[in-house]
């Protein structure tokens, strides 16, 4: 009887620890997002006179494709357009403009010098993100798809005129 109680005193706490670790792991890594995708097709500006800079995405931690463009609308506001975009899903994935060149590493991207334009709307399609009014867009050299949770870039597009 004593051996049974001793085993129970070990098994129950160990089970609780395992369950908590699994729950935290599922929350942090969200592995189901490896198998999910979404598509959005927002209206893009196609006026080449409005184009300030553009570049093609290159993959970093996840396969990322498409074009990034900064365009100036007729009202004077700037936006980032992701054209024919595709990447993986993940937890806390955001779109940034950054003053770092496209060949900077994740540690450089994570430093100051970026503007978070918001959460990624979808893993595929055409997307538009507003740039805050008053931003000097000439300072920014690339568009970055960034995972806040793990401080890693999914893909980056260098901007050129």
TrEMBL record:
<feature type="transmembrane region" description="Helical">
    <location>
        <begin position="12"/>
        <end position="29"/>
    </location>
</feature>
<dbReference type="Pfam" id="PF10517">
    <property type="entry name" value="DM13"/>
</dbReference>
<keyword id="KW-0472">Membrane</keyword>
<keyword id="KW-1133">Transmembrane helix</keyword>
<feature type="domain" description="DM13">
    <location>
        <begin position="55"/>
        <end position="160"/>
    </location>
</feature>
<protein>
    <submittedName>
        <fullName>Electron transfer DM13</fullName>
    </submittedName>
</protein>
<dbReference type="InterPro" id="IPR019545">
    <property type="entry name" value="DM13_domain"/>
</dbReference>
<keyword id="KW-0812">Transmembrane</keyword>
